[in-house]
Write the structure tokens for this entry.
Amino acid sequence: MILSPTQLGVQLWEVAHASTGLPWWAAIPVATVGFRTVLMPLSLRAYAASSYLALLHRAFGLSREVGDAVAVAEAQERRQRVEVAASASVSEASAVASTSSDSSIGGSSGSSGGSNNDSTTVVDGARALGRMELVRHVVAHLRKESKLPSFAWYVANAAVQVPIAVSLTLALRRMCDSLWPGLTSEGVLFFTDLTAPPVYLQTLSTPYGTAGAILPLALMLLYSSAVDRSRGGSSPGINMALKLCAIPLYITALQQPHAVLLYWLSHAATQLGIYQVAALAEPSHGSSTAATAQTNQGGGSVDDLLLVLSDSYDKAGNKAAARACLQALSVRQPGLASVHERLKQLDK
């Protein structure tokens, strides 16, 4: 029991309370800030790595644009091949009409077969892109361009911080359940008893009346603000999903002792502080992100991405996918001589 995570959390809280000499309502936030400060280097690296979530969302959007560009190029090339095949069939039929109708039919069928083979080649080139393979190549390009740290930092931070937060929360719950000395009297303002929750679920009674909802509401506001400031929350879909989690968070907070609510509030406040420190360390992040988003809405970024993807697929040995990207780029920008040269090199 001495080495259990919950018991270790109890010992940490008691050491923090005894060493600071503060009442419990002040010792809990001070200890929380101390814990988060020790782990701040890991938190900052995880904050930078969390951009991978927004980057992945943007990669799916760009991959759809690339797929649409390739589809347009395929349709145009297929249409051109059909027109060439049709004109060749008409020319051949008129040339041999004076000799034999059978030979005319044979020539027409032969040219038609050639057209089908060419069309199949174009379709195979598009399929060679591969949906998930395309996303992987786009993610690799965006990550290299933005110089993001490995996503392993985000996972490592969660592996460290989540068990600590859970252990400290369970420790406070155990201390409140056992009416730990000082917790019942060293509160502040309206919540003098830190062991009492805003709502007793068994009896649906509210020991502090409507004032008991103040800390849960403040927790929700801090949580929503943290979601907006996080890099993962910059994606609309992720932002909405995270904010929907505020509803069960509020319901859970109403049933927690005020000591736990103080810890959660301090934890959320320090998280906002970490985001602010990270933003000050990267002053150009906001402007660069806005510029990148604005560039992605234009056609130039997709054209550049098609060129980069052609090189990436070519290095991976997927000649058909590389040709499909170059063909799409040649349709979007017909005057690029370098694209036609690369297409000739791929066809060799």
Notes: The radius of gyration is 32 Å. The chain is about 75% helix and 0% strand.
